[in-house]
Amino acid sequence: MSKSPLTPLKGLRVSSHQIPSLGRIPNTSIQKKPLLIYHSAFNPGTSASAIESHLTNIGVVDPRWQYTMYATSHFHSNTHEVLAIASGKAKLCFGGEDNPQRVEPLVEQGDVIVVPAGVAHRLLEDIDGGFTMVGSYPKGKNWDMCYGKEGEDEKVKGIEHLGWFDRDPIYGHAGPALDV
To answer: CA–CA separation, 150 vs 85, rounded Å?
Structure first.
C-alpha cells in the first residue's frame, strides 16, 4: 500500500476568508462560501503528476492544467476552482487589488486553495521563479474568464445557482469544503 501524499486531516491548518464584493467583482458575496486555503495539504516533494493522480482518484474535480496564475485579476462565473501548489512560492491576491478587505497570502508547494466562483484572483509575485499550480474544476465544468467589467452581469447572476462540493475535493468524504 502506498503512502498517502496528504497531511492527515486532523493535522491540517485551514484559513477561511469571506471577501466582500468590489464594484462588479462579486467575490464571496453571492453564495457566502469562503475562500479556503489548506496549508501544506500535500506532503513536501509531492509532484504535480502525483497531485493530479490524487485528485483524479478522489473524483470530485478534474485536473485541467499545470501553470502559474495570471497576473491580471480575473474570476470565474460558471465554476469553482481548486488550485494545488505543485512547486515554488508566490504572493497572490484574492478579492481585487483595490479591495481593502482583499486577501494576499504567501502560498507554497503543498498548499491548496479552494476558490469559489466569483472570487477575483491574480499573481502578485512569483517569489522564486518556479511557481506552478495544478488547476482543477468540478467534474463536467469548464471555466470562463470574467474581469469585473461591464457586460458580465448576466454571467455573474449564474453564480447564485452553482452547486457546492458534496465531497471535499482533496480529502473526499470529510474535509474543510464540507464544513462551510
So the answer is: 32
Quickly count: other Cβ atoms within 10 Å of residue 62's Cβ: 17
C-alpha cell at 108: 507554497
List the beta bridge partners of residue 89. 108
pLDDT band at 2 (very low <50, low <70, confident <90, very high): low
**pLDDT of residue 40 exceeding 60:** yes
DSSP 53: H
Q: What is the pLDDT of residues 128-155, one digit of tens each?
A: 999 999 999 999 999 999 999 999 999 9
Question: Which residue bears the cell 483524479?
Answer: 56
Work out the widest C-alpha separation in the chain, in whole angstroms. Answer: 53
Taking the C-alpha atoms of residue 98 and residue 22, their distance in angstroms, rounded to an integer, is 8
Q: Which residues contact 97 (CB under 8 A, 6 or more apart)?
A: 73, 122, 124
| SS3 state at 54 | helix
Question: Could you identify the residue written with the cell 464594484?
Answer: 23
* Cα 127 to Cα 172: distance, rounded to the nearest angstrom: 31
> How many CB atoms within 10 Å of residue 76?
24
CB 120 within 8 A of CB 75: yes
β-pairing, 132-138 vs 106-108, is unpaired
Kindly report the average pLDDT of the chain as a whole number: 96
- 42 strand-pairing partners: 6
